[in-house]
Amino acid sequence: MRRKLLVLVLVFGAALALAAVAHADNGGFAPATPHSPNAQDINTSYKLIAVFTGAIFLVVEGSLVWFIFRYRNRGRPRSAEGPQIHAHSRLELIWTAIPVLIVAVIAAFVLYKLPGIKNVPSAKAQGGPLLVRIDAHQFYWQFTYPNGAISIDELHAPAHRVVKVEIHSEDVDHSWWVPELGGKFDAIPGQTTHTWFQADRMGAYRGQCGEFCGVYHAEMAARVVVESESAYRSFLSSVADPLVLGGQEWSGVCAKCHGISGQGGYGPAIASNSTLVQPVGLRRIL
Prior knowledge:
Blueprint: H1 2-22, H2 37-70, H3 89-118, E1 130-137, E2 140-144, E3 150-152, E4 154-158, E5 163-169, E6 174-177, E7 184-187, E8 193-197, E9 203-208, E10 221-227, H4 229-239, H5 242-258, H6 274-277, H7 279-285
Helix pairs in contact: 2-3
């Protein structure tokens, strides 16, 4: 009776833990809700694999629990051996063929979906994809638009427009990842990687560097702001102002390490730095 109670408590505790994780906000078993065709294909592939692996888990663990109860010790000595069964060819063929078929189905489905994830649509009706260059730095993202405008940590794009991004790294390995708009793509020094998205609704999408790139890796957050075509063009006009870009560079680049008021954090303080305060020091820098 004590063993049964212990097993029931463990099963109940595991069920509560799994339920809590499954319903956690932005952190459950399922990926983020997709809002781009390539992200939708990734989500569909994930669900197919989850169905197979979930079924395997239930069959294997269910059989294990059933065997524990069905063939538990009924007063027999612990040293007694059970009946030995050898060479059940049909059973061995079955449990070899089933995993092979499962892997084949998963591989075929993923390969079928892969072109839709990887290949950039032509978007002829929109005049071709919008090309944005992404430069990853320690510890910020820089976005360069077709007209030469630059923004820091916040990428703006029109809704329903195909956006192709070219990903570069200026120092160490990084990884561009906005879960709702697609998969994870590495930024490697000396190489250029590509991905794309086509957001189906306006809003802000959270992104994060998916590769440990240094002690301030957590600060390499990004946002993709999807807006109307007119709002997008207005944004490009606004960042053409050097003061606006300067403000973005301070808050998105300098202040992350040196503090929003220059008081220092990870990097040395700027507000009380005698080298920067003294006129001689300023002339030396300039």
